[in-house]
Amino acid sequence: MITDTIANAGRYALLHPDFADAVRLLQTLDFAALPDGRIETGNPNIRLFIGREPMRAREAAKPEAHLKHIDIQVPLSGAEAYGWADRSHLENGLGYDEKRDIEFFDCGCETWFELHPGEFALFFPDDAHAPLVGSAATIRKAVFKIRAAGHRL
């Protein structure tokens, strides 16, 4: 997992073949002007979704993990807390959904952190994360889904 500011995102462009495109989008898109929904990225290995999501209490947040993609999550309208855990430490998997590339776990997170607009979190397949935690009713956020090496989206 990596957390940083959008201004520093270029530091990570060489970590994956598609990160340079994702960083360019992250740093140049006017998220406030974009509609909610799926946004065309020009790269078939990067999907971008923007939308409003309901927030929840920390106790209600269950870790999730992906096998086929890497997430870059960006809060747009306010603070968002995230739980994190190393996927190998998680127990009580609730079943992998192949179509959605997601598995939820019925256990807690190892650590918690908070992001604000202008910051991002990058979650690799080994990073289980519990997003959408906070006191606001909803949050508008951007989520990049980047193909993990050896997988197709």
From TrEMBL:
SUPFAM superfamilies: Clavaminate synthase-like. It comes from the Bacteria. It holds the Pfam family DUF386. Gene3D superfamilies: YhcH/YjgK/YiaL (2.60.120.370). InterPro entries: NanQ/TabA/YiaL, NanQ/TabA/YiaL_sf. GO terms for cellular component: cytosol. PANTHER family: EVOLVED BETA-GALACTOSIDASE SUBUNIT BETA, PROTEIN YIAL. This is YhcH/YjgK/YiaL family protein.
